[in-house]
Design brief:
Helix content is 34%, strand content 18%. It contains 9 helices and 14 strands. The strands form 6 sheets. Strands 1-2-3 form a 3-stranded parallel beta sheet. Strands 4-7-10 form a 3-stranded antiparallel beta sheet. Strand 2, helix 2 (50-62) and strand 3 (68-69) form a beta-alpha-beta unit. It starts with a strand and ends with a strand. The mean pLDDT is 93.
Length: 276
């Protein structure tokens, strides 16, 4: 059975980009007579606001979508901790006390997901009095996992090569898990068989495939859809104040008509679908 999901973080309102992503996941599940899940990713500390999750539900209902809700991330902390301890016990992760400023001062190489960590804390004894993240030792992890592949429904089979992101954080200093670890574990727990998300997360999938191999998790199919971009060519984002679905809903706009327009590629003025 095809199982998809939409997993927003309640740290700001949903916008058209979120609507498009939710509609893609919803429609792929419905076409296959499968299940469309809603999962609230609420482990971002004080930035996560329960009232925003309630707004999300109203937004999805306004768009005419139907879903099954699964437990939020905040209920799964023991699962994240157990996985992190597993990897730590096997020597596949290491503590890192570096701040963002520390890393930027070293003028690191840039990869597809930003600055590549230069490995400052790898093999070092860190100060136990400083907050520490846990980073995945990519080289050691890949030596254990061997050659891996993953399949994107649009782009075809991919050779998993997570080296482009360097030793990524899997447990943040300020949160019980990073996106990489939490989303990978959650999708497995929820039985997701088709991970639908934006093309901007394509490279992150190399890391998620590696984590699946290390933790013995099932391997889904992925579907990385194009992104809605604004007049400047940038993807719609909460931090740039992209107009919210809630504002459109409250203004009396017809949500189901909006959803149908997005399905047919009829986007509001200034909005474009970028396929890569």
């Amino acid at each position: 059975m095809t199982v998809t999901r939409f997993a927003p973080s309640p740290n700001g309102p949903l916008h058209l980009g979120h609507a498009f992503s939710a509609i893609v996941a919803h429609d792929l599940a419905r076409e296959a007579r499968g299940r469309f899940l809603l999962r609230i990713e609420d482990i971002d500390g004080p930035r996560s606001r329960p009232e925003m999750a309630d707004e999300f539900r109203r937004d999805l209902e306004w768009l005419g979508l139907e879903w099954e809700e699964v437990p939020a991330q905040s209920t799964r902390l023991t699962t994240y901790d157990a996985a992190a301890r597993n990897l730590l016990g096997r020597g596949l992760v290491y503590p890192c006390t570096c701040t963002r400023a520390d890393i930027e001062a070293l003028k690191p190489r840039l990869g597809s997901q930003g600055a590549i960590y230069p490995g400052t804390c790898k093999g070092s004894v860190v100060d136990p009095g400083k907050p520490a993240a846990l980073r995945l030792d990519i080289d050691r992890a890949m030596a254990e996992s061997g050659h891996l592949f993953w399949e994107d429904a649009l782009a075809g089979q991919q050779v998993a090569d997570p080296r482009g992101g360097g030793d990524v954080v899997i447990v943040r200093k300020d949160a019980p898990a990073s996106y990489h670890l939490a989303a990978t574990l959650d999708d497995a727990a929820d039985g997701v068989t088709l991970v639908t998300r934006g093309a901007d997360l394509f490279d992150a999938t190399h890391i998620h495939r590696l984590l699946q191999a290390l933790l013995g998790l099932p391997v889904p199919l992925w579907y990385h859809h194009g992104l809605l971009t604004d007049e400047s060519g940038q993807k719609l984002a909460k931090r740039r104040g992209s107009p919210s679905l809630a504002d459109r809903r409250r203004s009396g706009e017809n949500g189901q008509a909006l959803a149908d327009a997005l399905r047919s590629g009829e986007f509001p003025a200034g909005i474009t679908l970028a396929n890569s």
